[in-house]
Specification:
alpha/beta, 6-stranded parallel beta sheet, globular
Length: 328
C-alpha cells in the first residue's frame, strides 16, 4: 500500500511517498480502506522533532492520527457488522497517512449517510476537541466569548458552536480572507490579528458588548495568548489549549487564582477513548444535520503530504488541510 513516510525529523520535505505491506486486522480490530486523512498542526510539530517528551515517535514513521474510510475486513472477535460501513477513527499520532489502517473496533464511529467522508475526516480531531471545549467552558447565552485563531480548522468550529450557544462571539483571525470567513460563520465582531493594535481593538469590541470576555478560547498560544489574559473577566474561564506558536500560553496560575479565573489547558481535552467516540458521534450528527460546518481549505493527494504540512505551517489555508488516497 502507499504511505507518506517521515524518513527523519525535519521540515516538510522529510515526508516522502513509500510502499509498505498491507496491514492485517488482529483480533478485535478492523481494516479500513482510507479515503481521507485528517491533518492537524501538532502533526507538523511532531514531524519537526518537537514535543518529543509528549509524543515519543521514532523515525522513520508514518504520521497521521485521524482517518475516514470504509471497513474492508474485520478481525476475529469483532461482533458488530462493521464490514462495508463508512467510519471515522482516531489512531493516536501515527499510521494514518496510508491507504489502509487497522483500528480497534471500539474506536470506530459510523458516518451518517447524509455526511461525506471528506467532511467527516475534518471532524475526527477538531470536532471532538471543539465540543470538549464547549463542555468544559460552558458558554451561556449572552456571555462574551473570545476565540483566538478563529480561522483554523478548530477555530472555525468554535465560532459556530459558541454562536449556537447564544454567546456574543469576538473572534481574532489574520487577513481579509480569514476575517471574512469567520464573520460568515457567526462571529459578532472580527478583529484582524495582523494589526499592531489588535489587543486594543479586541478590548474595545468586548467593552461594546458589555465587558471583558467571560470565556477565552486560545488556540494560538505563546505571546498572542498571553496578550489576551488581561481581556478575560475576573471569574471567567481561559482555555490555553493551542500551541502553533511553539508553546502554550504561560498563564500565571497565581494571577488566575487571584482573579478567580478557571484555567484550563491541553490536559483538559485529553479524552478517554469512550469520550472521544461519544463526542465524535455528536460532531458527525451536528454536521449531518447542517448545524456544524467543517471548513476545508485544500485536499492534498497522499503523495503530497509534504505540501499539506507546508501549507499548515505557512498558515495559508482557510480552515484545514486534508489528505486523500483518491478512493473517496
Amino acid at each position: 500500500m502507499r504511505v507518506a513516510l517521515a524518513e527523519e525529523f525535519g521540515g516538510p520535505e522529510v515526508l516522502v511517498a513509500a510502499e509498505r505491506p498491507d496491514p492485517v486486522a488482529a483480533p478485535g480490530e478492523v481494516l479500513i480502506d482510507v479515503a481521507y486523512v485528517d491533518t492537524i498542526f501538532v502533526e507538523t510539530q511532531i514531524r519537526s522533532g518537537g514535543f518529543s517528551e509528549v509524543f515519543p515517535v521514532q523515525v522513520p514513521y508514518v504520521p497521521g492520527g485521524g482517518v475516514a474510510g470504509t471497513v474492508r475486513t474485520t478481525g476475529e472477535g469483532v461482533d458488530a457488522p462493521w464490514a462495508g460501513r463508512r467510519v471515522i477513527a482516531s489512531l493516536g499520532f501515527s499510521g494514518g497517512y496510508a491507504e489502509r489502517a487497522t483500528v480497534p473496533a471500539e474506536l470506530l464511529v459510523p458516518v451518517p449517510d447524509a455526511l461525506g467522508l471528506r467532511e467527516a475526516a475534518a471532524l475526527v480531531h477538531d470536532g471532538v476537541t471543539a465540543l470538549a471545549l464547549m463542555e468544559s467552558t460552558a458558554p451561556k447565552p449572552g456571555e462574551r466569548v473570545l476565540v483566538l485563531g478563529a480561522s483554523g480548522g478548530m477555530g472555525t468550529l468554535l465560532v459556530q458552536l459558541a454562536h449556537a450557544a447564544g454567546a456574543h462571539v469576538v473572534a481574532v483571525a489574520r487577513g481579509e480572507r480569514k476575517t471574512a470567513l469567520v464573520r460568515e460563520l457567526g462571529a459578532d465582531t472580527v478583529i484582524d490579528g495582523a494589526a499592531a493594535d489588535w489587543v486594543e481593538r479586541t478590548r474595545a469590541a468586548l467593552a461594546d458588548a458589555g465587558g471583558p470576555a467571560d470565556v477565552v478560547l486560545d488556540g494560538v498560544g505563546g505571546q498572542v495568548g498571553l496578550a489576551a489574559v488581561p481581556l478575560v473577566a475576573d471569574g471567567g474561564r481561559f482555555s490555553a489549549h493551542g500551541a502553533p506558536t511553539g508553546g502554550f500560553t504561560p498563564v500565571d496560575p497565581e494571577e488566575a487564582a487571584r482573579r478567580s479565573i478557571t484555567l484550563l489547558g491541553i490536559g483538559d481535552v485529553q479524552l478517554s477513548d469512550a469520550e472521544h467516540v461519544r463526542l465524535a458521534g455528536l460532531a458527525l450528527a451536528e454536521a449531518a444535520a447542517g448545524r456544524l460546518r467543517p471548513v476545508i481549505g485544500e485536499v492534498f493527494p497522499l503523495e503530497r503530504a509534504a505540501g499539506a504540512h507546508a501549507a499548515i505551517e505557512a498558515r495559508s489555508l482557510l480552515g484545514k488541510a486534508l489528505l486523500t488516497t483518491g478512493t473517496g
